[in-house]
UniProtKB/TrEMBL annotation:
PANTHER family documented for this protein: DUF4283 DOMAIN-CONTAINING PROTEIN, GLYCINE-RICH CELL WALL STRUCTURAL PROTEIN 1.8-LIKE
Record flagged with keyword Membrane: no
Domain CCHC-type: 195-209
Protein name per UniProt: CCHC-type domain-containing protein
One Pfam family per UniProt: zf-CCHC_4
Superkingdom: Eukaryota
GO molecular function terms noted in the UniProt entry: nucleic acid binding; zinc ion binding
Keywords recorded for this protein, A-Z: Metal-binding, Zinc, Zinc-finger
Keyword Zinc: yes
Amino acid sequence: MDGVEILDLEEGLGESGEINNLCLVGKVLNSKPLNVVAITNICTSAWKTRAPFSVVPWSTNIFLFRFEEIEDKNEILKEGPWSMMNSLMVLQPLTEGAAVSDLDFSYCPFWVQIHGLPVEKMTRTNAEIIGRRFGKLLAVETSPDGFLLGRSFLRVRVEVKLSDPLPKGFWLRRKFESGNDHWISYRYEKLSDFCYACGRIGHDNRGCKFVQRSEESSGYGPELRTGRVRKSAIPIEEIKQQVDAAEIRVAQLLSKRPVNQSNKDDARVWFVG
């Protein structure tokens, strides 16, 4: 642009990317501005880091967290999501060359429990099929023989799109013709307050602009929330994000299972076999 300079700036002291590797940026989904002192106190109490960390208010409800140990930063990301005063805080790492304003806070990873499956359906393959319904599947609990019977539910880590209503579950078609469809429910670990009217995170019923109060019940409630499970010896498999043969196979399986809509946008997924 005429009259505007373009500058090349130095990278700063230390190895390239060192400062970014020690930082996280958090956005608290709350309509009211939150105080940095309160955020610092909550995080200091909840995170139990090996070394001290600092919190810098960046803009309204966006905070920069700078750690001294990269292990602390990675552990905080791994153990998320986190709530600040009952509001979800979405954390994102900094990447080289990115400004805070470049970060996308529209997705957040959650561990999701899948309850109600018949025992023969509690497999590693079905966990992946269900997890990919959310969009991006990050990890699944697994086992050497492929059957996930270490708990009474399957468990997957997925990215949840925050602008959409939380999926509540799906209907499972019975293998035998005389059986009724069976409801399979989701529960979200460490889920903060959300709107029981529309099912979205970031506001409550009083501030909902998606559903009128006069409309019938949406079916959302506290049953979607659950605490984090205790640590166990059940192995966790992180999912590779590049396309490979296994992903193609899962996509093919998904394409053979139709999705219908019930009265309240509940996905109906048919697992036959």
